[in-house]
Amino acid sequence: MPVVELKLSRTNRIYRPCEHLQGQIIVNSRSSISHSGIRLALNGSVNLQVRGGSAGVIESVYGVIKPILIVNRSILVRPSGKLASGTNEIPFSVILRQPSENLGKFYETFHGTDINIQYLVTVDISRGYLHKSLSATMEFIVESDTADFLERPLSSEMVIFYITQDTQRHPLLPELRSGGFRVTGKMSTLCSLSDPITGELIVETSAVPINSIDIHLCRVESVILGERIITETSVIQTTQIADGDVCRNITLPIYVILPRLLTCPTVFAGPFSIEFKVYIVITFQSELSKLHPKTDPRTPRLWLAIESLPMELIRCRSDD
Amino acid sequence: MEFRHRDYTAEAKLFLLGRDRAEIHPLSVHSSQQVNIADDQILQYDDPLRADDNATVSGFYLEDTENSPTTGVSSEYDFLPAEKEWSSFTRFMTQRFPVPKLVSVTSVSNAIIKVGKTHEKSSTGMHSEELEDPQSITENEVKVITRQDYINRLREFKDDLIRAWDASDRVTSLKISMKVTKLLKDTCVLQFYPTLFVLVTDILDMLGNFVWDRIKRKAEFTEDGARICSLPENFKIKDICQNAKETCHNWFCKIGAIQELLPRIYLELALLPCWRFLSDQPVVVTQRLVVMARGLADPLASAYCRLYLTHCAHKLPSCDVGVLISCVNDMNVQLKHFITAKETDSSTDNKVLLVSVMEPTIEYIVKCMFKYVSQRELDRTLLALGLGRNMEISQCVSVVLHHILKELAVEVVSSNAMEFLQLINQSNDSSFRQFMNYRLLGLRLCEKRPPVYIVDTLVNNVLKVIEQNESLDEYLMVIDAYLDIVLQNHLDSCIKTILEAISQRSCNKQIDENGVISLQSILGKLLSHYQHLEDVFALSHFLEILDLLVGGSRSIIVIDILKMATRNSYIRDPATIELLFEISQALNDSFDFANMKDDDNQPEHLLSRFVQLVDFGIERERHLAFLVECRGAFGTIDKLKETLVHSSNGLTVKALKDTKNHVNFVKACIAFSEVTLPSISAQIKQFNLYLETAEVALLGGLISHADELIDSAISCLHNMEIKEGSRAAAEAELLLSSIQKLCSLLVMLPGNPIHGSVHFPKILVSFVNNAPWMTPRMRTGILCAILSLLAACSQNRLPYHADKGVLWGSNNVFFGDSANLYELVSLSEHIVQNLVDAVLQESSPAARGAMALDACNSILSSFTIKDETYAICSKLTETAKLCMNESNKYLQSTFQLLEKKSQLLVKG
């Protein structure tokens, strides 16, 4: 049985919309193969679905929403003919976005809970109706074009935050309320995907000893379903920046490297949006917390102080 | 046979050598050398604390010279010494803390316990119960594991990691290292923590090297193995291909995704050198990691994290001192926070322990900091540490201050002495004993003295501050450090204050081990400072303070005092003598002289020397009384008894010279010697002393005493035996010369009419013939001596007299007595016979030749030559000729002499 494989020119399989997707079709066969044409198909689409989260039962049943097509193109690589026995390497090169084409925006590849943006390349060798056609599919990753980038330089402005017992809208431990605490800091809220989130944080006062300070990076996926917006928020990375009752009035750095496969530039498309948020969570030492070892960090608890900040991620020119 | 007549005065004139006046005194040249020796002795004291410093300093120099040719070019080269230093440091650190057999761990260290459990299941069930204390698990979530199991488990992890890496399973490798690193979160293990740290960082370093090698290979070779380039040591990121950068970036992303702070920092540190593939300024990363470490609230965990940071920062080509300065400053802040945190009763001890476990990290970081700081940067560094111009604002915690003081260049310490003193004043916290910092400052200042104008104020301030310290031991330890400065600047009032304070504190306080050591050092310094012992004894409370010392250190000081006392000339001050006698007595009591080896018995030597140097001048009775007292006190010391006899004999001679009315005193002295002598156990020495005393007795006219003493000497000879051994030859030589001396002494002895004049020579001859250990060589020597003695006795005028001829000699009693002469001759004939036999007994030809000639000469000088004597002499020279080369000068001259005399015979 002959085997067909796809091999892309880049090991990391990352391509930009303006670039050519290049690679080889490798066919391995003991005998020669006659075929009626080798075709390559590009397919890119946004798949939306609703399950759980803020969607109701009905929605989750009828959860699947019609996908949004980004690109769907088929090219003839070889006209009908014959492939010699042994290994055949057939090179190909396809431009992703044809300048004439005026299709949808090439969103970056993204795999989320409700939203999936995926690009596939498929090779198809049809061998008439007597033989099964040979095919292989491979995902490739799309990152935004340099031309699409915002021209404005990335501002280094930081958002200043402060967290005290009074900024908390949920009930706190009585000793936290009475003793009080004050944690201040600043953080960048506009961030290039290749750079870490930076900032700093100072514990100014806290009567109750601190157990931990963590930065939770969350992804917010929203899908319009009919007249409702269904939002799903999930924690994608937690980074501890303070372990234990740290010294007061000393600057602690916030430094969070963005996880590569779980992030993409913030997107506001018509039918869906992908946003990010940062939660700064201070856990105070409390006997109660030991009774609930694992909880969603965003769940307000008596021994937690939480501050959330929006985070806009962008693909930046400085990325090679 | 007939004795030859001798005119000794004429012979002496004949053989006298011509004399010339010397231009220079032969000893005058040496005077300057003596000064040098004295100087050396002053410099010789060494401080045990400083020896260590010197060693490390010289170590640094070594590195410098190694690095200098390749400065900045090769980092590989810098690498090695730093690596070595690190490994020796870590080894030292693990040995520093006694680790209990069992390590208690909290739930954080589950990785160790969990696998331990599965491990046990495979072995016996019994084992698991021993391993975990079921009670502690339920109550405090504390588990117990044996240290060895812990270490073994870590080794297994290491092996797993190596295996995973070899199988190209990078994810597993990373996971294992994360698991291992998380163990460092558990600081409950306390004393085990340093060991744990060393084991874990060893694994991390290994991972770091793996990753470095892998990325470097990616940068240098393609996937097919073709070489792209060869990276120079100081490569830049432009030299690195995209693929390698990608891999490297991936690693840091993986590490960045670690949730917990501590493992994240440690792993990034392990891979720190790899940042060079991504950035030309990897120092920036180090700076970030320093501030990240502030998030670790546990003081122990963060201190060791900074230690690892210091270690890893050295792997970068350029180490930034700023990073280390921030480390030290952060450490200060954190320690301050920790120390001032609310203390419950039980936690104070715990804190002290914790700080002691942290101390190596402080030590290492501070050491590294000053090692890499250049002279130019020093001011800036000090400023950054808060030790610049306004030291008052410094935030240094005392334990950090201690290590800074220890490592700082001595010039800086010296020129800012007052500021540092003030700083120590302020930093009085529980992390370190304040007095130890005062002490350290003193020790550092001794290395380079501060300018004179501040010394006075400085010392006064120190005294004022330390005055408040009630503890005797601590007071002593601080004072010990400053004493050199005080003494060198002649601050006599301070010395007075110090001694006063010590005596005051000693009233009701026990002194401990450290205190004793310091006190010993203090007294030693005082002793070496003063020229004369009287000055030391005159210091108020000195003796009182000396009494505080006990045991070995007391003996050492007493020895020092004795050394000082016996260094110069006679000891004449009666008060000093009395004091020295008292302390010597105590020294004697504390030593077991009988069990000491002769060779290096310093106290014994010193005591003898002391007794020898005592001089009461004309108060001779008092001196003798002192000797008697000494005999009572030091009766067990053999060497000292010899000195006593010498001294008493010396006294006698002095008395004989000075005064007329001395008979009773001389008798007393001789009696003293006679009583002392029998207890001396070294026989040759005893024999010599008998002779000496006999000589003195003879000089004093106490002939019967002399007689008895010589009798004792000879009976002492009979008990003597020279055993085989390495020293036998030397001893035989000594004994021979002593017996020769006895013979020369016998010339002067008037002789006892009851026994006859040949009484002693006869005994000697029989001794020579009967002693089984007597060698032919010795026998020949003694017989020749006796022969000469007999010849001398036969003369009308003796060659010499005791006391210029006032006293009688042997011939005065017997001269002219033909029976006596006959006895002399017959004994001589007997001796000559024995002599010839003895010569022939010698087995070695060379020795036999020399002995034959000796005997021949002796006979020639004693007798007038007649046929009989000529025959004997010819026989002896023939024997010598057979044994010796003909050209031998001795042989020739003897032969000539014999010829000359025989011509006389022919003429006669």
From TrEMBL, chain A:
Pfam families per the UniProt record, alphabetical: Vps26
GO cellular component, one term: cytosol
Organism superkingdom: Eukaryota
Gene3D superfamilies in alphabetical order: 2.60.40.640
An individual GO BP term: intracellular protein transport
Family (UniProt): Belongs to the VPS26 family.
Protein name as annotated: Uncharacterized protein LOC103502664 isoform X1
Organism: Cucumis melo (Muskmelon)
Gene it is expressed from: LOC103502664
TrEMBL record, chain B:
InterPro entries, sorted: VPS35L (IPR029705)
Record-level GO cellular component terms: endosome
Source species, domain of life: Eukaryota
A Gene Ontology biological process term: endocytic recycling
Subcellular localization: Endosome
Annotated PANTHER family: ESOPHAGEAL CANCER ASSOCIATED PROTEIN, VPS35 ENDOSOMAL PROTEIN-SORTING FACTOR-LIKE
Protein name: Uncharacterized protein LOC103490132 isoform X1
Lineage: Eukaryota, Viridiplantae, Streptophyta, Embryophyta, Tracheophyta
Gene: LOC103490132
